[in-house]
């Protein structure tokens, strides 16, 4: 799991470097989730998950409130949730999740990003079966044993608990996100370095320098698209 944690860190660092783009994507996701259910995180678990993720990226409260108020106001803007799958250089696999109000715009943009950067889109299901949906939390200031004990006290089951780079990383089933979060809060832990619902590759590939440079351009091109919310891949970014 250690290498997977490196990839999660790399992804978060990339997002942290482009804050305005990240804020816009979170605003869209918060609006969609708030509109699909109640615009109140106390009664909308999906909204609570998104807000916890937003917190780890330091999304300003004003942006969050504006998105929720837009949902409360009965905005007629609708978004479709789409997933694209494809391949990059030398066996790399990529999943692209999008929220779009114009399907006819998004698909060509994603396809162009792949084709112009050494990749190609695959059919639905061609890549996703090699990934596992996973909830991931990063906690600092605790040992793995301490985290395991507090989760056991709350009767919360997780996949794995590891110590990586002075942090404890907890991997759990995606439907356990809220249970894990609440268990930590019961123990007085309310700050997370990472709180994500992600897709983790079952097996990772290592790319040579030239292929890695091309792959990074492909990932950047995909993440820069306004409609793209998340990009997952199976490339090991190392330490």
From TrEMBL:
Keywords: Cytoplasm, DNA-binding, Transcription, Transcription regulation
Keyword Transport attached: no
Intracellular or extracellular location(s): Cytoplasm
UniProt xrefs under Gene3D superfamilies: 1.10.10.200, 3.30.70.980
Chief localization: cytoplasm
Occurrences of domain TACO1/YebC-like second and third (ranges): 80-235
A Gene Ontology BP annotation from the UniProt entry: regulation of DNA-templated transcription
GO MF, one annotated term: DNA binding
GO CC field: cytosol
Domain named TACO1/YebC-like N-terminal: residues: 3-74
Cross-referenced NCBIfam families: PRK00110.1, PRK12378.1, YebC/PmpR family DNA-binding transcriptional regulator
Record family assignment: Belongs to the TACO1 family. YeeN subfamily.
Protein name: Probable transcriptional regulatory protein C4B60_15085
Species per Swiss-Prot/TrEMBL record: Jeotgalibacillus proteolyticus
């Amino acid at each position: 799991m250690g290498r997977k944690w490196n990839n999660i860190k790399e992804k978060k660092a990339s997002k942290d470097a482009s804050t305005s783009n990240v804020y816009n994507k979170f605003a869209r996701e918060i609006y969609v989730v708030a509109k699909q259910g109640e615009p109140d995180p106390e009664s909308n678990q999906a909204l609570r998950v998104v807000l916890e993720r937003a917190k780890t990226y330091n999304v300003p409260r004003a942006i969050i409130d504006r998105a929720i108020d837009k949902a409360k106001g009965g905005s007629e803007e609708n978004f479709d949730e789409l997933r694209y799958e494809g391949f990059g250089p030398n066996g790399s696999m990529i999943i692209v999740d999008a929220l779009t109000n114009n399907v006819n715009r998004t698909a060509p943009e994603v396809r162009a990003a792949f084709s112009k950067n050494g990749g190609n889109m695959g059919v639905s299901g061609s890549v996703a079966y090699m990934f596992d949906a996973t909830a991931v939390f990063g906690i600092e200031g605790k040992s793995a044993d301490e985290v395991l004990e507090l989760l056991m006290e709350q009767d919360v089951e997780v996949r794995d608990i590891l110590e990586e780079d002075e942090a404890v990383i907890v991997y759990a089933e995606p439907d356990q996100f809220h249970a894990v979060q609440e268990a930590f809060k019961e123990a007085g832990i309310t700050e997370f370095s990472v709180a994500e619902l992600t897709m983790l590759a079952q097996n990772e590939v290592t790319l040579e320098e030239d292929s890695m440079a091309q792959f990074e351009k492909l990932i950047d091109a995909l993440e820069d698209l306004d409609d793209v919310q998340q990009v997952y891949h199976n490339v090991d970014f190392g330490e």
